[in-house]
Amino acid sequence: QVQLVESGGALVQAGGSLRLSCAASGRTFSTYVMGWFRQAPGKEREFVAGFSSSGDKTSYAHSVKGRFTISTDNAKSTAYLSMNNLKPEDTAVYYCAARAPYRDFASGSWGQGTQVTVSS
Description:
Layout: E1 4-7, E2 11-13, E3 18-24, E4 33-39, E5 46-51, E6 58-60, E7 68-73, E8 78-83, E9 92-99, E10 109-110, E11 114-119
Parallel strand pairs: 2-11
Antiparallel strand pairs: 1-3, 3-8, 4-5, 4-9, 5-6, 7-8, 9-10, 9-11
C-alpha cells in the first residue's frame, strides 16, 4: 500500500485560504483514487472531497462545495486540497486517503492528519 504524509495545516482567520498537501510514496500514485476527509473534535470523520474511480469526476461535501478544490500532481505523487473562504466550522484534523479503483477508502491507505484551525 502507498504511504501518505499530509502537510499544510495551520491556524488561519475566517475568510482565509490554505492549501493542504498529501505526499505519497511509491511509483504507483497515479493508479490510486485520492480523497480528503476531516474529523472535528467530538465528531465522526467525514468525507470532504474525492475523485471518482474513473478519475474524471470530483465530488465534494455539500458544506465545502464551491470553496474547496481537490487536485493531484502525478509527477510529484502529491494530492492537494485548496481551501478558500474558510469558516470556523472547517476546523478539524484533515486526512488524505488513497484507495484502489472501485474499492472503498476504509480498505485503503491513510495519512496521519494535519490540523486546520479557523478562528472567527
